[in-house]
Model the fold of this input.
Amino acid sequence: MAQRLSGKQVAEALDLDTKERIALLAARRILPCLSILRVGEDPGDISYERGATRRCEALGIKVQLRHFPETVSQETLVAAVAQINRDESIHSCLLLRPLPPHLDDEAIRSALAPGKDADGITDGSLGGVFSGSDRGFAPCTAEACIRVLEYYGIDIEGKTTVVVGRSLVIGRPVAMLLLQRHATVTMCHTRTKNISEICRQAEILVVAAGRQGVVDRSCFHREQVVLDVGIHVDADGKITGDVDFSEAELLVSAITPVPGGVGAVTTSVLAAHVVKAAETVGR
Done:
Protein backbone atom coordinates (compact mmCIF):
# COMPACT_ATOMS: atom_id res chain seq x y z
CA MET A 1 0.00 0.00 0.00
CA ALA A 2 1.38 3.40 -1.00
CA GLN A 3 2.26 6.13 1.45
CA ARG A 4 -0.49 8.75 1.36
CA LEU A 5 1.06 12.20 0.89
CA SER A 6 -1.53 14.29 2.71
CA GLY A 7 -1.43 18.01 2.02
CA LYS A 8 -2.78 18.95 5.45
CA GLN A 9 0.53 18.49 7.26
CA VAL A 10 2.39 20.33 4.51
CA ALA A 11 -0.01 23.27 4.74
CA GLU A 12 0.26 23.37 8.53
CA ALA A 13 4.06 23.52 8.41
CA LEU A 14 3.98 26.22 5.76
CA ASP A 15 1.38 28.21 7.71
CA LEU A 16 3.51 28.05 10.85
CA ASP A 17 6.42 29.65 9.00
CA THR A 18 4.07 32.24 7.47
CA LYS A 19 2.70 33.19 10.90
CA GLU A 20 6.22 33.78 12.22
CA ARG A 21 7.01 36.03 9.27
CA ILE A 22 3.75 37.95 9.76
CA ALA A 23 4.73 38.57 13.39
CA LEU A 24 8.01 40.10 12.21
CA LEU A 25 6.09 42.30 9.77
CA ALA A 26 3.79 43.42 12.56
CA ALA A 27 6.83 44.67 14.45
CA ARG A 28 7.48 46.89 11.42
CA ARG A 29 3.80 47.94 11.45
CA ILE A 30 3.14 46.22 8.13
CA LEU A 31 -0.11 44.33 7.64
CA PRO A 32 0.08 41.99 4.62
CA CYS A 33 -2.85 42.57 2.28
CA LEU A 34 -4.23 40.52 -0.60
CA SER A 35 -6.73 41.87 -3.11
CA ILE A 36 -8.92 39.25 -4.82
CA LEU A 37 -10.59 40.22 -8.09
CA ARG A 38 -13.50 38.06 -9.22
CA VAL A 39 -15.56 38.50 -12.37
CA GLY A 40 -18.97 36.81 -12.44
CA GLU A 41 -20.38 34.08 -10.19
CA ASP A 42 -18.57 30.94 -11.25
CA PRO A 43 -18.97 28.36 -8.43
CA GLY A 44 -15.34 27.25 -8.73
CA ASP A 45 -14.10 30.83 -8.42
CA ILE A 46 -16.35 31.46 -5.43
CA SER A 47 -15.13 28.30 -3.72
CA TYR A 48 -11.47 29.17 -4.25
CA GLU A 49 -12.07 32.75 -3.12
CA ARG A 50 -13.67 31.53 0.09
CA GLY A 51 -10.86 29.07 0.77
CA ALA A 52 -8.16 31.67 0.10
CA THR A 53 -9.95 34.24 2.25
CA ARG A 54 -10.34 31.85 5.17
CA ARG A 55 -6.71 30.78 5.00
CA CYS A 56 -5.32 34.30 4.76
CA GLU A 57 -7.52 35.84 7.44
CA ALA A 58 -6.76 32.96 9.82
CA LEU A 59 -3.07 33.74 9.43
CA GLY A 60 -3.50 37.48 9.92
CA ILE A 61 -3.48 38.62 6.30
CA LYS A 62 -5.98 41.29 5.32
CA VAL A 63 -8.15 40.36 2.32
CA GLN A 64 -9.82 42.91 0.09
CA LEU A 65 -12.56 41.48 -2.15
CA ARG A 66 -13.59 43.15 -5.39
CA HIS A 67 -16.39 41.62 -7.44
CA PHE A 68 -17.41 42.59 -10.94
CA PRO A 69 -20.37 41.50 -13.06
CA GLU A 70 -19.68 39.11 -15.90
CA THR A 71 -20.37 41.98 -18.29
CA VAL A 72 -17.57 44.16 -16.87
CA SER A 73 -15.68 46.12 -19.49
CA GLN A 74 -12.03 45.67 -20.33
CA GLU A 75 -11.30 49.26 -19.32
CA THR A 76 -12.92 48.86 -15.90
CA LEU A 77 -10.98 45.72 -15.04
CA VAL A 78 -7.65 47.09 -16.29
CA ALA A 79 -8.28 50.24 -14.22
CA ALA A 80 -8.90 48.09 -11.12
CA VAL A 81 -5.61 46.26 -11.67
CA ALA A 82 -3.77 49.56 -12.18
CA GLN A 83 -5.22 50.87 -8.92
CA ILE A 84 -3.89 47.81 -7.09
CA ASN A 85 -0.45 48.38 -8.61
CA ARG A 86 -0.43 51.94 -7.25
CA ASP A 87 -1.81 51.16 -3.78
CA GLU A 88 1.16 50.55 -1.49
CA SER A 89 -1.10 49.07 1.21
CA ILE A 90 -2.00 46.18 -1.13
CA HIS A 91 0.89 43.77 -1.45
CA SER A 92 -0.55 41.10 -3.75
CA CYS A 93 -3.41 40.43 -6.13
CA LEU A 94 -5.25 37.22 -6.99
CA LEU A 95 -7.11 37.55 -10.28
CA LEU A 96 -9.51 34.63 -10.62
CA ARG A 97 -9.56 33.11 -14.08
CA PRO A 98 -10.60 32.14 -16.68
CA LEU A 99 -12.18 35.47 -17.53
CA PRO A 100 -15.32 35.86 -19.68
CA PRO A 101 -14.55 35.53 -23.42
CA HIS A 102 -15.21 39.19 -24.21
CA LEU A 103 -12.21 40.20 -22.08
CA ASP A 104 -8.61 40.15 -23.33
CA ASP A 105 -7.02 37.84 -20.78
CA GLU A 106 -3.46 38.56 -21.90
CA ALA A 107 -3.90 42.34 -21.71
CA ILE A 108 -5.42 42.17 -18.24
CA ARG A 109 -2.72 39.82 -16.97
CA SER A 110 -0.05 42.07 -18.43
CA ALA A 111 -1.48 45.04 -16.55
CA LEU A 112 -0.62 43.45 -13.19
CA ALA A 113 2.81 44.18 -11.72
CA PRO A 114 4.78 40.91 -11.34
CA GLY A 115 5.73 41.87 -7.79
CA LYS A 116 2.03 41.83 -6.84
CA ASP A 117 1.16 38.74 -8.89
CA ALA A 118 0.34 36.28 -6.11
CA ASP A 119 -0.52 33.36 -8.38
CA GLY A 120 2.14 33.65 -11.08
CA ILE A 121 -0.16 34.54 -13.99
CA THR A 122 1.79 37.39 -15.59
CA ASP A 123 4.40 36.95 -18.29
CA GLY A 124 6.87 38.61 -15.92
CA SER A 125 6.26 36.03 -13.20
CA LEU A 126 6.35 33.12 -15.62
CA GLY A 127 9.53 34.56 -17.11
CA GLY A 128 11.01 34.46 -13.63
CA VAL A 129 10.03 30.80 -13.26
CA PHE A 130 11.48 29.84 -16.64
CA SER A 131 14.71 31.79 -16.12
CA GLY A 132 15.14 30.81 -12.48
CA SER A 133 15.14 34.42 -11.28
CA ASP A 134 13.35 35.88 -8.25
CA ARG A 135 11.02 38.05 -10.31
CA GLY A 136 7.37 37.54 -9.39
CA PHE A 137 6.01 34.27 -8.07
CA ALA A 138 5.45 30.77 -9.37
CA PRO A 139 1.85 29.61 -9.90
CA CYS A 140 0.64 28.46 -6.48
CA THR A 141 -0.38 24.93 -7.46
CA ALA A 142 2.89 24.29 -9.27
CA GLU A 143 4.85 25.42 -6.22
CA ALA A 144 2.57 23.34 -3.98
CA CYS A 145 3.82 20.22 -5.79
CA ILE A 146 7.40 21.09 -4.84
CA ARG A 147 6.38 21.83 -1.24
CA VAL A 148 4.79 18.39 -0.91
CA LEU A 149 7.90 16.63 -2.17
CA GLU A 150 10.18 18.66 0.10
CA TYR A 151 8.02 18.18 3.20
CA TYR A 152 8.01 14.39 2.83
CA GLY A 153 11.74 14.30 2.22
CA ILE A 154 11.43 13.02 -1.34
CA ASP A 155 14.71 13.83 -3.04
CA ILE A 156 14.26 15.58 -6.39
CA GLU A 157 17.87 15.99 -7.50
CA GLY A 158 18.80 13.63 -10.32
CA LYS A 159 15.42 11.91 -10.32
CA THR A 160 13.75 10.84 -13.55
CA THR A 161 10.57 12.88 -13.51
CA VAL A 162 7.61 12.92 -15.89
CA VAL A 163 5.03 15.72 -15.99
CA VAL A 164 1.76 14.90 -17.75
CA GLY A 165 0.23 18.22 -18.79
CA ARG A 166 1.60 21.31 -20.52
CA SER A 167 -0.53 24.23 -19.31
CA LEU A 168 1.03 27.48 -18.13
CA VAL A 169 -0.91 27.08 -14.89
CA ILE A 170 0.70 23.82 -13.73
CA GLY A 171 2.42 21.60 -16.30
CA ARG A 172 5.10 23.86 -17.74
CA PRO A 173 5.89 25.81 -14.55
CA VAL A 174 6.14 22.70 -12.37
CA ALA A 175 8.52 21.21 -14.94
CA MET A 176 10.71 24.32 -14.63
CA LEU A 177 10.61 24.20 -10.82
CA LEU A 178 11.69 20.55 -10.93
CA LEU A 179 14.52 21.39 -13.34
CA GLN A 180 15.70 24.12 -10.98
CA ARG A 181 16.08 21.38 -8.37
CA HIS A 182 18.11 19.27 -10.81
CA ALA A 183 15.50 16.67 -11.76
CA THR A 184 15.64 15.15 -15.24
CA VAL A 185 12.24 16.11 -16.64
CA THR A 186 10.16 14.75 -19.52
CA MET A 187 6.88 16.43 -20.43
CA CYS A 188 3.90 14.52 -21.82
CA HIS A 189 0.37 15.51 -22.74
CA THR A 190 -2.85 14.02 -24.05
CA ARG A 191 -1.40 13.64 -27.56
CA THR A 192 1.85 11.97 -26.51
CA LYS A 193 2.44 8.59 -28.12
CA ASN A 194 3.55 5.69 -25.91
CA ILE A 195 2.62 7.68 -22.80
CA SER A 196 2.47 4.52 -20.67
CA GLU A 197 6.03 3.58 -21.57
CA ILE A 198 7.29 7.08 -20.77
CA CYS A 199 5.41 7.31 -17.47
CA ARG A 200 6.71 3.91 -16.32
CA GLN A 201 10.24 5.33 -16.45
CA ALA A 202 9.36 8.04 -13.93
CA GLU A 203 10.57 7.97 -10.37
CA ILE A 204 8.36 11.02 -9.78
CA LEU A 205 5.18 11.32 -11.84
CA VAL A 206 3.20 14.60 -11.81
CA VAL A 207 -0.23 14.24 -13.43
CA ALA A 208 -1.79 17.59 -14.33
CA ALA A 209 -3.55 16.99 -17.62
CA GLY A 210 -7.01 17.98 -16.44
CA ARG A 211 -8.47 14.76 -17.84
CA GLN A 212 -9.59 11.73 -15.87
CA GLY A 213 -8.00 8.47 -16.90
CA VAL A 214 -5.14 10.06 -18.84
CA VAL A 215 -2.87 7.63 -16.98
CA ASP A 216 -3.79 4.11 -15.89
CA ARG A 217 -2.18 1.13 -14.17
CA SER A 218 0.15 0.61 -17.14
CA CYS A 219 1.89 3.88 -16.21
CA PHE A 220 2.86 2.92 -12.65
CA HIS A 221 5.58 0.96 -10.87
CA ARG A 222 6.33 0.05 -7.27
CA GLU A 223 9.05 2.64 -6.59
CA GLN A 224 7.14 5.60 -8.03
CA VAL A 225 5.93 8.78 -6.33
CA VAL A 226 2.74 10.18 -7.91
CA LEU A 227 1.43 13.72 -7.51
CA ASP A 228 -2.15 14.01 -8.78
CA VAL A 229 -3.00 17.65 -9.51
CA GLY A 230 -6.27 17.03 -11.38
CA ILE A 231 -9.65 17.78 -9.85
CA HIS A 232 -13.02 16.64 -11.17
CA VAL A 233 -16.52 15.99 -9.89
CA ASP A 234 -17.94 12.66 -11.05
CA ALA A 235 -21.58 11.76 -11.75
CA ASP A 236 -22.12 10.94 -8.06
CA GLY A 237 -20.77 14.31 -6.92
CA LYS A 238 -17.52 12.79 -5.67
CA ILE A 239 -14.30 14.79 -6.10
CA THR A 240 -11.63 12.84 -7.94
CA GLY A 241 -8.28 13.52 -9.60
CA ASP A 242 -6.72 12.65 -12.94
CA VAL A 243 -5.55 9.36 -11.40
CA ASP A 244 -7.69 6.46 -10.20
CA PHE A 245 -6.48 6.69 -6.59
CA SER A 246 -7.83 3.33 -5.39
CA GLU A 247 -5.98 1.56 -8.20
CA ALA A 248 -2.75 3.56 -8.07
CA GLU A 249 -2.48 3.28 -4.28
CA LEU A 250 -1.86 -0.45 -4.69
CA LEU A 251 0.79 -0.03 -7.38
CA VAL A 252 3.07 2.88 -6.40
CA SER A 253 5.29 3.90 -3.49
CA ALA A 254 3.58 7.17 -2.55
CA ILE A 255 0.69 9.25 -3.88
CA THR A 256 -1.25 12.43 -3.12
CA PRO A 257 -4.99 11.95 -2.57
CA VAL A 258 -7.71 14.06 -4.19
CA PRO A 259 -9.08 15.89 -2.33
CA GLY A 260 -6.59 16.57 0.44
CA GLY A 261 -3.35 16.45 -1.49
CA VAL A 262 -1.68 19.13 -3.59
CA GLY A 263 -4.81 21.29 -3.60
CA ALA A 264 -4.76 21.52 0.18
CA VAL A 265 -1.38 23.23 0.00
CA THR A 266 -2.23 25.78 -2.69
CA THR A 267 -3.84 28.46 -0.51
CA SER A 268 -0.98 28.17 2.00
CA VAL A 269 1.46 28.87 -0.83
CA LEU A 270 -0.71 31.84 -1.84
CA ALA A 271 -0.54 33.24 1.70
CA ALA A 272 3.24 32.78 1.76
CA HIS A 273 3.48 34.74 -1.50
CA VAL A 274 1.48 37.62 -0.03
CA VAL A 275 3.81 37.75 2.98
CA LYS A 276 6.92 37.61 0.80
CA ALA A 277 5.61 40.55 -1.22
CA ALA A 278 4.93 42.49 2.01
CA GLU A 279 8.45 41.78 3.24
CA THR A 280 9.89 43.79 0.36
CA VAL A 281 8.19 46.98 1.62
CA GLY A 282 10.74 49.55 2.73
CA ARG A 283 13.73 47.60 1.45
Observations:
- The chain has ten helices and eleven strands.
